């Protein structure tokens, strides 16, 4: 189906904006559904369900609750402002607001999260294929990567959006069928009641500090607010109003549909106790409770969720590198060349994501790293740059570097529990400090000029 959509769309593709932004013509239904489908991927159907199986509601802070609020906040506060700037990528915002040097630094920080996100989806695809066939996880991951890289490279954003609409619909139908069948065939309601103990109904684990809870919420809410995949959908909308409303509607749909895998994760210990790999809870429940015909529908729904996310992540990474790094270094401006460079970039990052998926331990681990890596500086510079006019290239550069360095040192070397909060504080603090120093220097320079020195 994806390949058929790609072939159809390719005939109408005439410019880089057609490939990267679907011509900026997305209406409300397509925009809202692609926002939902892009984010509702492996981390919800596979990762979050497994985390909730293991930890109860505390395992669902990141997904579905955190990411749903993140999307909603994008629509409420920032979608109209971003759309009004007529950007092609978020990297263009950094160029317009802070200069070309900050543009390149921002791209360097934004690309790894998208590639990690894509790797998470490929890994989840491998889990689904492995759980429902005789394939090993490694073979299944390889098969998944070949499919995804091929159709994503060819079709661009419009093919992605059309596929998202179809895949999102299939996903919702599949999850509704699974939850209905499971609830109507629960073998022992008493065991289900035990799995809903007060401890599992809390958003905070008993051993966790409140600071850890804040840190856990901040990664999806703040770390993903300006994710390239979400910003691309906003920029591709047909108007500022569509961008705003589509993000708010997409976030609402995300939360509602997210309750379906959440409910199965909550009662999962009663249905399949002592599961060695919690991230396989959804496919295993489906195998156990669904007849063959319905299981095929559900497996298609899972695959739809994964495909609708991984293609978006690869397009985001490819567009940032091609549009903001590679094309400015070339003298060619013809649109066919721009599309070719974008496709090569998308394909290259697909290969990198595949290699990461082969070496990763878990889906949720990849997703959390995708949200945390470098995002403190991205968030700080976007918020401050959109809401006020002070702070230039030096301010933004220091803020990004401090945020990334703080997280890297504390998370990977010191192994500090609250590394993301610390990186966010460091990024904001350094932005304000350098902005204040720059403002004072500018004022002193102006005074000196006005007084004749």
Structural summary, described in words:
- The longest helix is centred in the middle third of the chain and has 47 residues, at 137-183.
- By secondary structure, the protein is mainly α.
- The protein has helices at residues 2-10, 16-21, 28-39, 42-55, 61-84, 90-98, 100-131, 137-183, 189-195, 210-223, 228-235, 240-271, 281-289, 292-326, 335-359, 363-372, 375-387, 393-414, 419-450.
- The model is unreliable at 445-450 (pLDDT under 50).
- It folds into two domains: 2-363, Up-down Bundle (Sodium/glucose cotransporter); 374-453, no CATH class.
- It has 19 helices and no strands.
Give a quick precis of the structure.
The chain is mostly helical and 453 residues long. The protein has 19 helices and no strands. About 1% of the residues have low confidence.
List the helices and strands and how they pair.
Blueprint: H1 2-10, H2 16-21, H3 28-39, H4 42-55, H5 61-84, H6 90-98, H7 100-131, H8 137-183, H9 189-195, H10 210-223, H11 228-235, H12 240-271, H13 281-289, H14 292-326, H15 335-359, H16 363-372, H17 375-387, H18 393-414, H19 419-450
Helix pairs in contact: 1-8, 3-8, 3-11, 3-12, 3-14, 4-7, 4-12, 5-10, 5-11, 5-12, 6-7, 7-8, 7-14, 7-15, 7-16, 7-18, 8-12, 8-14, 8-15, 9-12, 14-15, 17-18, 17-19, 18-19
The arrangement of helices and strands along the chain is HHHHHHHHHHHHHHHHHHH
Tell me, what is the CATH class of the largest domain?
Mainly Alpha
Rg is: 22 Å
Supply the number of helical segments. Answer: 19
Which labels suit this protein?
79% helix, 2 domains, mainly alpha, 453 residues, Sodium/glucose cotransporter
């Amino acid at each position: 189906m994806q390949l058929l959509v790609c072939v159809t769309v390719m005939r109408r593709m005439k410019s880089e904006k057609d490939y990267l932004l679907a011509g900026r013509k997305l209406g409300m239904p397509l925009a809202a559904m692609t926002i939902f489908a892009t984010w509702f991927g492996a981390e919800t159907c596979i990762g979050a369900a497994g985390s909730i199986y293991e930890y109860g509601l505390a395992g669902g802070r990141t997904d579905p609750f955190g990411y749903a609020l993140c999307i909603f906040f994008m629509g409420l506060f920032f979608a109209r402002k971003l759309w009004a700037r007529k950007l092609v990528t978020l990297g263009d915002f950094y160029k317009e607001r802070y200069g070309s040097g900050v543009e390149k630094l921002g791209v360097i920080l934004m690309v790894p999260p998208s590639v990690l996100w894509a790797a998470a989806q490929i890994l989840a695809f491998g889990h689904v294929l492995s759980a429902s066939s005789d394939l090993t996880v490694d073979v299944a991951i390889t098969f998944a990567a070949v499919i995804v890289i091929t159709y994503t490279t060819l079709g661009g954003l419009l093919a992605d959006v059309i596929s998202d609409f179809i895949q999102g619909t299939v996903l919702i139908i599949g999850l509704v069928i699974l939850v209905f069948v499971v609830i109507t065939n629960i073998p022992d309601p008493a065991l289900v009641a035990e799995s809903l103990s007060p401890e599992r109904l809390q958003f905070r684990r008993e051993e966790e500090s409140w600071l850890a809870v804040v840190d856990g919420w901040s990664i999806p809410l703040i770390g993903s607010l300006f994710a390239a995949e979400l910003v691309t959908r906003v920029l591709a909308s047909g108007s500022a109003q569509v961008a705003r409303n589509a993000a708010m509607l997409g976030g609402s749909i995300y939360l509602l549909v997210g309750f379906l895998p959440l409910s199965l994760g909550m009662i999962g210990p009663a249905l399949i106790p002592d599961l060695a790999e919690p991230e396989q809870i959804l496919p295993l429940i489906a195998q156990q409770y669904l007849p063959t015909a319905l299981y095929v529908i559900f497996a298609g729904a899972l695959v739809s969720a994964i495909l609708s996310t991984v293609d978006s992540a690869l397009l985001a990474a490819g567009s940032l590198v091609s549009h903001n790094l590679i094309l400015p270094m070339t003298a060619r401006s013809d649109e066919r060349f721009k599309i070719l460079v974008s496709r090569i970039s998308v394909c290259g990052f697909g290969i990198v994501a595949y290699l990461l998926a082969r070496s990763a331990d878990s889906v949720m681990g990849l997703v959390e790293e995708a949200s945390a890596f470098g995002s403190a500086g991205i968030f700080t510079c976007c918020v401050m740059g959109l809401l006020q006019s002070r702070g230039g290239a030096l301010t933004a550069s220091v803020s990004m570097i401090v945020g990334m360095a703080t997280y890297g040192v504390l998370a990977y070397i010191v192994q500090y529990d609250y590394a993301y909060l610390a990186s966010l504080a460091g990024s904001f603090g350094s932005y304000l400090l350098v902005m204040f120093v720059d403002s004072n220097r500018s004022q002193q320079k102006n005074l000196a000029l006005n007084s004749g020195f």
